[in-house]
Amino acid sequence: MHILVIGGAGYIGSHVVKALLKNGMDVTVFDNLSSGDRINYFQGAEYIEDDILNIPALEKALSNNIDAVIHLAAKKAVGESMEKPELYAVNNICGAINILNAMSKFGVKNLIFSSSAAVYGIPEYVPMDENHPINPISFYGFTKSDMEKYFEWYDALKGIKFVSLRYFNAVGYDEDGDVKGLDKNPQNLLPIVMETAKGIRSQMSIFGNDYDTPDGTCIRDYIHVTDLADAHVRAVKYLSDGGKSQKINLGTEKGVSVLEMVTRAEKLIGKKINFSFAPRRAGDPPILLSSAHKAKEVLGWSAGNSSDIDNIILSTWKVYNL
Ligand code: UDP
User: Fold this and answer.
1) What is the DSSP letter of 183?
2) From the alpha carbon of 78, which atom of ligand 1 is closest?
3) Residue 131: which of 142, 140, 119 has the closest Cα?
4) Which residues are designated catalytic?
5) Which of 44, 170, 179, 197 reaches 20 to 30 Å from 314, CA-CA?
6) pLDDT by residue, tens only, the chain of 322 residues
7) 201 lines ligand 1 (CB under 6 A)
8) How far apart are CA 181 and CA 147, in angstroms?
9) How many A from CA of 21 to the centre of ligand 1?
Protein backbone atom coordinates (compact mmCIF):
# COMPACT_ATOMS: atom_id res chain seq x y z
CA MET A 1 0.00 0.00 0.00
CA HIS A 2 1.28 3.48 -0.87
CA ILE A 3 0.43 6.12 1.74
CA LEU A 4 0.85 9.87 1.31
CA VAL A 5 1.54 11.38 4.73
CA ILE A 6 0.88 15.09 4.59
CA GLY A 7 2.68 16.69 7.51
CA GLY A 8 4.84 13.58 7.87
CA ALA A 9 7.97 15.43 9.00
CA GLY A 10 6.26 16.90 12.05
CA TYR A 11 6.04 15.64 15.57
CA ILE A 12 3.11 13.22 15.22
CA GLY A 13 3.66 12.65 11.50
CA SER A 14 7.17 11.30 11.88
CA HIS A 15 5.99 8.79 14.47
CA VAL A 16 3.24 7.77 12.03
CA VAL A 17 5.77 7.37 9.20
CA LYS A 18 7.89 5.09 11.35
CA ALA A 19 4.85 2.93 12.18
CA LEU A 20 3.76 2.69 8.52
CA LEU A 21 7.26 1.67 7.37
CA LYS A 22 7.41 -0.93 10.13
CA ASN A 23 4.15 -2.35 8.77
CA GLY A 24 5.64 -2.74 5.30
CA MET A 25 3.83 0.17 3.67
CA ASP A 26 5.29 2.49 1.01
CA VAL A 27 5.40 6.04 2.29
CA THR A 28 5.64 9.42 0.60
CA VAL A 29 5.76 12.45 2.88
CA PHE A 30 4.54 15.90 1.82
CA ASP A 31 5.60 18.60 4.29
CA ASN A 32 6.44 22.29 4.08
CA LEU A 33 8.83 21.99 7.06
CA SER A 34 7.15 24.92 8.80
CA SER A 35 7.19 22.93 12.01
CA GLY A 36 8.55 19.65 10.64
CA ASP A 37 12.25 18.91 10.51
CA ARG A 38 14.59 16.98 8.20
CA ILE A 39 16.07 15.41 11.31
CA ASN A 40 12.86 13.34 11.42
CA TYR A 41 13.32 11.87 7.94
CA PHE A 42 13.27 8.09 7.70
CA GLN A 43 15.24 6.03 5.27
CA GLY A 44 12.82 4.18 3.03
CA ALA A 45 10.30 7.05 2.79
CA GLU A 46 10.17 9.56 -0.09
CA TYR A 47 10.01 13.26 0.85
CA ILE A 48 8.38 16.14 -1.00
CA GLU A 49 9.05 19.54 0.58
CA ASP A 50 6.06 21.62 -0.37
CA ASP A 51 2.92 23.29 0.90
CA ILE A 52 -0.73 22.15 0.85
CA LEU A 53 -1.63 25.64 -0.37
CA ASN A 54 0.40 24.89 -3.54
CA ILE A 55 -2.29 23.03 -5.49
CA PRO A 56 -0.13 21.88 -8.48
CA ALA A 57 2.44 20.37 -6.08
CA LEU A 58 -0.30 18.65 -4.11
CA GLU A 59 -1.90 17.28 -7.27
CA LYS A 60 1.44 15.95 -8.47
CA ALA A 61 1.88 14.09 -5.17
CA LEU A 62 -1.66 12.69 -5.34
CA SER A 63 -1.24 11.53 -8.94
CA ASN A 64 1.40 8.98 -7.94
CA ASN A 65 -0.73 5.85 -7.27
CA ILE A 66 -1.68 6.76 -3.71
CA ASP A 67 -3.93 4.29 -1.84
CA ALA A 68 -4.59 6.49 1.19
CA VAL A 69 -3.79 9.94 2.53
CA ILE A 70 -2.96 10.66 6.15
CA HIS A 71 -3.44 14.38 6.69
CA LEU A 72 -1.64 15.90 9.68
CA ALA A 73 -0.52 19.24 8.24
CA ALA A 74 -2.18 21.91 10.35
CA LYS A 75 -1.56 24.76 12.71
CA LYS A 76 -2.13 23.37 16.19
CA ALA A 77 -1.83 25.93 18.99
CA VAL A 78 -5.09 26.76 20.76
CA GLY A 79 -3.85 30.09 22.17
CA GLU A 80 -2.38 31.28 18.86
CA SER A 81 -5.59 30.36 17.02
CA MET A 82 -7.50 32.84 19.19
CA GLU A 83 -5.07 35.62 18.28
CA LYS A 84 -4.44 34.81 14.62
CA PRO A 85 -7.53 33.03 13.30
CA GLU A 86 -6.59 33.98 9.73
CA LEU A 87 -3.56 31.64 9.87
CA TYR A 88 -5.78 28.80 11.01
CA ALA A 89 -8.51 29.49 8.47
CA VAL A 90 -6.09 29.41 5.55
CA ASN A 91 -3.76 26.60 6.61
CA ASN A 92 -6.27 24.28 8.19
CA ILE A 93 -9.51 24.85 6.29
CA CYS A 94 -8.27 25.90 2.84
CA GLY A 95 -5.48 23.32 3.10
CA ALA A 96 -7.96 20.50 3.80
CA ILE A 97 -10.19 21.56 0.92
CA ASN A 98 -7.19 21.53 -1.42
CA ILE A 99 -6.41 17.99 -0.30
CA LEU A 100 -10.00 16.81 -0.80
CA ASN A 101 -10.13 18.33 -4.28
CA ALA A 102 -6.81 16.78 -5.28
CA MET A 103 -7.95 13.40 -3.90
CA SER A 104 -11.19 13.67 -5.93
CA LYS A 105 -9.29 14.57 -9.07
CA PHE A 106 -7.01 11.52 -8.85
CA GLY A 107 -9.56 9.06 -7.45
CA VAL A 108 -7.90 8.61 -4.03
CA LYS A 109 -10.68 7.35 -1.77
CA ASN A 110 -9.24 6.87 1.71
CA LEU A 111 -8.34 9.61 4.16
CA ILE A 112 -7.09 9.48 7.75
CA PHE A 113 -7.31 12.82 9.48
CA SER A 114 -5.74 14.26 12.61
CA SER A 115 -8.68 15.75 14.44
CA SER A 116 -8.76 16.81 18.06
CA ALA A 117 -10.64 16.66 21.34
CA ALA A 118 -10.85 20.44 20.91
CA VAL A 119 -13.92 19.88 18.71
CA TYR A 120 -16.01 19.18 21.83
CA GLY A 121 -15.48 22.39 23.79
CA ILE A 122 -16.55 22.43 27.44
CA PRO A 123 -17.48 18.86 28.37
CA GLU A 124 -21.11 18.24 29.24
CA TYR A 125 -19.97 14.89 30.68
CA VAL A 126 -16.73 12.93 31.00
CA PRO A 127 -15.35 10.73 29.69
CA MET A 128 -16.49 12.15 26.38
CA ASP A 129 -17.61 9.76 23.70
CA GLU A 130 -17.95 10.57 20.01
CA ASN A 131 -21.64 11.48 20.43
CA HIS A 132 -20.77 14.32 22.79
CA PRO A 133 -22.05 17.65 21.36
CA ILE A 134 -19.59 19.51 19.15
CA ASN A 135 -19.15 23.04 20.54
CA PRO A 136 -15.53 24.14 20.07
CA ILE A 137 -14.46 27.11 22.20
CA SER A 138 -11.22 27.78 20.32
CA PHE A 139 -10.79 28.71 16.68
CA TYR A 140 -8.36 25.79 16.38
CA GLY A 141 -11.10 23.40 17.56
CA PHE A 142 -13.55 25.04 15.18
CA THR A 143 -11.23 24.42 12.20
CA LYS A 144 -11.06 20.72 13.12
CA SER A 145 -14.83 20.34 13.47
CA ASP A 146 -15.36 22.32 10.27
CA MET A 147 -12.97 20.07 8.35
CA GLU A 148 -14.87 17.02 9.57
CA LYS A 149 -18.00 18.48 7.98
CA TYR A 150 -16.23 18.88 4.63
CA PHE A 151 -15.15 15.25 4.89
CA GLU A 152 -18.75 14.16 5.42
CA TRP A 153 -19.85 16.03 2.32
CA TYR A 154 -17.00 14.68 0.20
CA ASP A 155 -17.88 11.19 1.40
CA ALA A 156 -21.50 11.69 0.32
CA LEU A 157 -20.68 13.43 -2.96
CA LYS A 158 -17.35 11.96 -4.02
CA GLY A 159 -17.12 8.65 -2.14
CA ILE A 160 -14.06 9.64 -0.12
CA LYS A 161 -14.05 7.53 3.06
CA PHE A 162 -12.42 9.03 6.12
CA VAL A 163 -11.38 8.17 9.63
CA SER A 164 -11.14 11.29 11.71
CA LEU A 165 -8.97 10.55 14.72
CA ARG A 166 -9.80 12.93 17.53
CA TYR A 167 -6.59 13.04 19.50
CA PHE A 168 -6.64 14.03 23.10
CA ASN A 169 -3.22 15.40 24.22
CA ALA A 170 -0.43 13.92 22.09
CA VAL A 171 2.82 13.67 24.05
CA GLY A 172 6.00 11.60 24.42
CA TYR A 173 8.67 10.50 21.95
CA ASP A 174 9.65 7.35 20.12
CA GLU A 175 11.31 5.11 22.70
CA ASP A 176 14.02 3.94 20.24
CA GLY A 177 15.10 7.57 19.83
CA ASP A 178 14.33 7.55 16.07
CA VAL A 179 12.37 10.83 16.20
CA LYS A 180 14.48 13.71 17.42
CA GLY A 181 12.89 16.91 16.12
CA LEU A 182 11.96 19.27 18.91
CA ASP A 183 9.12 21.75 18.72
CA LYS A 184 10.75 25.02 17.62
CA ASN A 185 8.45 27.40 19.42
CA PRO A 186 6.49 25.17 21.75
CA GLN A 187 3.15 26.25 23.12
CA ASN A 188 2.12 22.87 24.54
CA LEU A 189 2.60 21.96 28.15
CA LEU A 190 5.14 19.14 28.11
CA PRO A 191 7.75 20.74 25.80
CA ILE A 192 7.48 23.90 27.90
CA VAL A 193 8.05 21.86 31.07
CA MET A 194 11.10 20.31 29.38
CA GLU A 195 12.50 23.66 28.28
CA THR A 196 12.06 25.00 31.80
CA ALA A 197 13.79 21.96 33.32
CA LYS A 198 16.63 22.41 30.82
CA GLY A 199 17.00 26.10 31.65
CA ILE A 200 16.12 27.11 28.06
CA ARG A 201 13.43 29.22 29.73
CA SER A 202 13.85 30.59 33.22
CA GLN A 203 10.26 29.92 34.25
CA MET A 204 6.87 28.78 33.02
CA SER A 205 3.26 29.64 33.71
CA ILE A 206 0.44 27.37 34.72
CA PHE A 207 -2.61 28.90 33.08
CA GLY A 208 -5.38 29.03 35.64
CA ASN A 209 -5.57 27.51 39.15
CA ASP A 210 -9.20 28.45 39.76
CA TYR A 211 -10.88 25.79 37.61
CA ASP A 212 -13.47 23.49 39.12
CA THR A 213 -11.03 20.57 39.35
CA PRO A 214 -9.43 18.94 42.44
CA ASP A 215 -6.26 21.12 42.36
CA GLY A 216 -7.77 24.00 40.38
CA THR A 217 -5.64 23.36 37.26
CA CYS A 218 -6.86 21.90 33.97
CA ILE A 219 -7.12 18.17 33.49
CA ARG A 220 -6.09 16.52 30.24
CA ASP A 221 -5.92 13.00 28.83
CA TYR A 222 -2.32 12.50 27.67
CA ILE A 223 -1.68 9.89 25.01
CA HIS A 224 1.75 8.76 23.82
CA VAL A 225 2.49 9.41 20.12
CA THR A 226 3.64 5.83 19.57
CA ASP A 227 0.16 4.68 20.59
CA LEU A 228 -1.38 7.35 18.35
CA ALA A 229 0.79 6.22 15.42
CA ASP A 230 -0.42 2.65 15.83
CA ALA A 231 -4.03 3.87 15.58
CA HIS A 232 -3.22 5.46 12.19
CA VAL A 233 -1.89 2.18 10.81
CA ARG A 234 -5.04 0.45 12.01
CA ALA A 235 -7.22 3.15 10.44
CA VAL A 236 -5.46 2.73 7.07
CA LYS A 237 -6.11 -1.01 7.19
CA TYR A 238 -9.71 -0.46 8.32
CA LEU A 239 -10.49 1.75 5.32
CA SER A 240 -8.65 -0.45 2.84
CA ASP A 241 -10.78 -3.37 4.09
CA GLY A 242 -13.86 -1.36 3.06
CA GLY A 243 -14.70 0.27 6.41
CA LYS A 244 -17.14 3.17 6.45
CA SER A 245 -16.30 6.72 7.55
CA GLN A 246 -15.78 7.19 11.28
CA LYS A 247 -14.90 9.75 13.89
CA ILE A 248 -12.94 8.15 16.68
CA ASN A 249 -11.49 9.47 19.94
CA LEU A 250 -7.93 8.51 20.84
CA GLY A 251 -7.30 8.82 24.54
CA THR A 252 -6.60 6.84 27.69
CA GLU A 253 -9.70 7.59 29.80
CA LYS A 254 -7.28 8.84 32.48
CA GLY A 255 -6.85 12.47 33.53
CA VAL A 256 -3.71 14.27 34.69
CA SER A 257 -3.81 17.87 35.93
CA VAL A 258 -1.32 20.50 34.78
CA LEU A 259 0.05 20.78 38.31
CA GLU A 260 0.41 17.00 38.57
CA MET A 261 2.30 16.93 35.28
CA VAL A 262 4.73 19.62 36.42
CA THR A 263 5.37 18.12 39.86
CA ARG A 264 5.70 14.57 38.48
CA ALA A 265 8.23 15.84 35.92
CA GLU A 266 10.20 17.57 38.69
CA LYS A 267 10.36 14.32 40.63
CA LEU A 268 11.32 12.08 37.70
CA ILE A 269 13.83 14.47 36.16
CA GLY A 270 15.22 15.52 39.51
CA LYS A 271 15.22 19.23 38.70
CA LYS A 272 13.29 22.19 40.05
CA ILE A 273 10.81 23.54 37.52
CA ASN A 274 10.26 27.20 38.20
CA PHE A 275 6.55 27.90 37.64
CA SER A 276 4.00 30.47 38.68
CA PHE A 277 0.23 30.58 38.33
CA ALA A 278 -1.06 32.87 35.59
CA PRO A 279 -4.55 33.77 34.36
CA ARG A 280 -6.54 31.23 32.38
CA ARG A 281 -5.60 30.85 28.71
CA ALA A 282 -8.40 31.68 26.26
CA GLY A 283 -9.99 28.62 24.68
CA ASP A 284 -9.06 26.10 27.40
CA PRO A 285 -11.78 23.75 28.71
CA PRO A 286 -11.26 22.76 32.38
CA ILE A 287 -11.21 19.05 31.64
CA LEU A 288 -10.84 16.82 28.61
CA LEU A 289 -11.17 13.10 29.10
CA SER A 290 -11.75 10.56 26.38
CA SER A 291 -13.93 7.52 26.25
CA ALA A 292 -11.87 4.78 24.61
CA HIS A 293 -14.72 2.44 23.65
CA LYS A 294 -15.15 3.24 19.99
CA ALA A 295 -11.43 3.01 19.15
CA LYS A 296 -11.43 -0.47 20.68
CA GLU A 297 -14.59 -1.51 18.89
CA VAL A 298 -13.77 -0.19 15.41
CA LEU A 299 -9.96 -0.34 15.27
CA GLY A 300 -9.18 -2.86 18.02
CA TRP A 301 -7.02 -0.09 19.50
CA SER A 302 -6.38 1.02 23.05
CA ALA A 303 -3.58 2.97 24.68
CA GLY A 304 -0.66 0.76 25.71
CA ASN A 305 2.05 1.01 28.35
CA SER A 306 3.73 3.81 26.38
CA SER A 307 0.98 6.14 27.58
CA ASP A 308 1.91 5.68 31.22
CA ILE A 309 2.60 9.21 32.45
CA ASP A 310 6.10 8.42 33.75
CA ASN A 311 7.05 6.94 30.40
CA ILE A 312 5.64 9.98 28.64
CA ILE A 313 7.78 12.33 30.72
CA LEU A 314 10.95 10.24 30.54
CA SER A 315 10.75 9.52 26.79
CA THR A 316 10.40 13.27 26.20
CA TRP A 317 13.20 14.20 28.60
CA LYS A 318 15.49 11.73 26.78
CA VAL A 319 15.06 13.59 23.49
CA TYR A 320 15.71 16.94 25.18
CA ASN A 321 19.04 15.57 26.32
CA LEU A 322 20.38 14.03 23.11
N1 UDP B 1 -0.56 24.89 29.86
C2 UDP B 1 -0.01 25.64 30.90
N3 UDP B 1 1.16 26.31 30.64
C4 UDP B 1 1.79 26.27 29.43
C5 UDP B 1 1.20 25.51 28.40
C6 UDP B 1 0.02 24.82 28.65
O7 UDP B 1 -0.53 25.72 32.00
O8 UDP B 1 2.82 26.93 29.28
C9 UDP B 1 -1.82 24.16 30.13
C10 UDP B 1 -2.97 24.59 29.22
O11 UDP B 1 -3.59 25.74 29.73
C12 UDP B 1 -3.84 23.33 29.25
C13 UDP B 1 -2.83 22.18 29.42
O14 UDP B 1 -1.62 22.80 29.89
O15 UDP B 1 -4.65 23.35 30.38
C16 UDP B 1 -2.53 21.47 28.13
O17 UDP B 1 -2.24 22.47 27.16
P18 UDP B 1 -1.58 22.11 25.77
O19 UDP B 1 -1.34 23.41 25.05
O20 UDP B 1 -0.40 21.22 25.97
O21 UDP B 1 -2.65 21.24 25.03
P22 UDP B 1 -4.21 21.52 24.69
O23 UDP B 1 -4.98 20.93 25.84
O24 UDP B 1 -4.40 22.97 24.53
O25 UDP B 1 -4.42 20.76 23.43
Assistant:
1) P
2) 24
3) 119
4) 140
5) 44
6) 999 999 999 999 999 999 999 999 999 999 999 999 999 999 999 999 999 999 999 999 999 999 999 999 999 999 899 999 999 999 999 999 999 999 999 999 999 999 999 999 999 999 999 999 999 999 999 999 999 999 999 999 999 999 999 999 999 999 999 999 998 789 899 999 999 999 999 999 999 999 999 999 999 999 999 999 999 999 999 999 999 999 999 999 999 999 999 999 999 999 999 999 999 998 889 999 999 999 999 999 999 999 999 999 999 999 999 8
7) no
8) 27
9) 32
